Amino acid sequence: MDEYAADTYGERFAASYDEIFADFTPRPAQIELLRRLAGPHTAVELGVGTGRVAIPLARSGVPVVGVDTSAAMLDQLARKAAGLPVQPVLGDATAPELAPELKAGVAYTVFNTFFMLPGRAAQATCLKNVRALLQPGGAFVVEVFVPRPELIAPVRIKSFTATEVVLQVSQHVAEEQRMDSQDVVLRHGAPVRLMPTQVHYLTPHQLDLLAEESGLALESRHADWDGAEFTPDSAKHVSVYRRLP
Question: In CATH, what number is assigned to the domain containing residue 58?
């Protein structure tokens, strides 16, 4: 997708992110798992956005470092997390020596954010950076969809009301395992809004291999945060990796 940069998603979505994803509140089991894995240490969220997960995790008593490439997203986070142990950090998960002074108990990325990294090389760099910032035996948690490109509709209706229609237009680039999409927001009396997303997906097996090459070993995989069994028909997976010595 031309003119799509690392901060494009955040800059386009920041102002309305909480409204768009109002129904995607964290499950209690999600916060409890991350709290348990963090132990007495800090948690690091990669792609923290406006703090949908970081804020309730901080309220549970876990200090959180929230990394994002979007200054607009971090502005929202700082406003919402005032008074909580949340440290917004403008940064790139693929940058060399991401937070070299930090030794976290858990790092995590949710809601398909890991797939928003720009390709396999960037994903591998991110995993190496994660290993470097974890305590010995620390955990990395990834929540991503299970790719089924054959089910992608080129155009679908996301929402439809008397005053607004949201369409999603998608394009699949199979040889790159990439999906480009635009949410086209048509609202009565308002300009057309384009909200782009680009993902580079991996199968669960591909992700496991990439993690192992980066010094992270799969410990568990479930179909959701509540611990449902992962099966070939699962729509997504929540996978926990451990830092290898």
Answer: 3.40.50.150
To which residue do tokens 């439809």 refer? 160
pLDDT of residue 17: 66
Q: Is residue 133 part of a domain?
A: yes
Structure tokens at 105: 């108990």
Regarding beta strands 86-90 and 64-68, do their DSSP bridges make them parallel or antiparallel, or are they unpaired? parallel
180-192 confidence digits (pLDDT tens) = 999 899 999 999 9
Instruction: Please choose, from the candidates 199, 179, 227, the residue with its C-alpha nearest in 3D space to the C-alpha of residue 27.
Output: 227
Which pLDDT does position 99 carry in this prediction?
A: 65
Q: What is the pairing mode between strands 64-68 and 43-46?
A: parallel
Q: How many CB atoms lie within 10 A of CB 52?
A: 20
Average pLDDT over residues 80-88: 96
* One domain, residues 168 and 120: no
CA 26, 209, 122: angle at the middle one, nearest 5? 70
Tokens, residue 92 = 């790139």
Domain-embedded: residue 1: no
Q: What backbone torsions phi and psi does residue 163 show, to the nearest 5 degrees?
A: -120, -5
Residue 65 and residue 21 in one domain: yes
